[in-house]
Amino acid sequence: MNSDESNAPEGRDQASVASKRWLSDAAGSLAYFPRGQAWGGYIVPDREREQAIRDADRRYAERSSVLIPFVSLLALPVVYGFYYVFGRYPILALALIPMAIVVIAIVDWQLRRPALAPLLKGLTRVPAADVATQRAFYRIGCSLFALIGITSLVAYLYEQRVAAIAVDSGTIEFYRTISKNLVLASFFGALLAGSIVGWSRLSSRLSPNKAMLGIFLFGTLTAILVGQAVSNFHDPQPAVILSRDTLYCQWRAGWTEIAHISQRSGRRGEEYVQVEFVNGQPAASCEIDGLNSDYAQVYDVIYSRWQAAKSKTALPGSAMMDRLRAELDQIPIGSSREKATAVLGPPDISGDRDTMFYVYPRAGTADPSSRRVVGLYLDEYRRVSRLAVYGLRDSNVIDDLSHEILNIGANDYPLLRFVLLDPKR
Known about the structure:
By secondary structure, this protein is α+β, with helices and mostly antiparallel strands. The chain is built from 13 helices and 17 strands.
């Protein structure tokens, strides 16, 4: 042991850690506790075995000190990964903390075991020497698991409450979860309880004023987070609302005002819906993280509602257009030419081998404003790559699905304008 303590400060630190694994009882017997005195140990009967165990611990400590700089490189990705999980699944992140501690302890023992196991074989086992610390570990573990269970239960009850509200609503609504508030409140509440229980030790290491300031901050943060969770639980307010005509997300926009919807990620991993408008006003963002549904599902619902609203506003509400809408629903992007013709029949007009046009209504005459030309565009494999429903509005040829005005220089423009204007086609 003297050889350990004669090294640099690093060697003294290693010796200090190693010394906590050794204990002599009143009878003079020397016990070794591989995982610390809060856990079981072994009686070491002779000096030769004692020295061999100390040498094994020292070699492991020396190897560990060499690897520490490399292991520290993993800190950044680990912290980022935890932040990512916490942002999306707060309760899972809380559960990962005790799991990570257990895994680290198991890995540490498995790395030490090959050298120590032969030296400990056949030695008499003894119970833990530091029973108070062992009980403290058990209490902390049980409290942490109870906290995870209670937090999960409250979050589940909140989800059920939100689901019951959504059933009575005529809109599609997404609510902020309270899981993150609950987890943060649990964290700061644990720090508050620990500071109060360990007041004497904390005030001795810090000044009483600093210790009191810490307790005040922990208490304030806990109260704020609990208050927010209770308020949201008592009166849930939707963060995103999808009605038949509008999208609400701290701002309001009609579906017909939206030109394009896409998904983007923020700098810290947040997920947003990016909304671009027909009238050219600045794009708006709607955060879809931290809601009672996964962000991918929220995006899909918003996009689908926008597409559905576009198709409904694009086509007149006549029986003929209802049938057209039902027919187009049977021709998703990627459908073969054969499937398209099976649904719609032979094209009324063929532009080239890659385009087919269908004129509605197909019989009689109609006012140009109510006439439509359905365009099917095929790719090189003769599969549908794009659908368009052209109409005439303010003397412009407009695709009612994309809300885009067809350029005068487009190849199909003369044909489409002629068909839309000519009553007899």
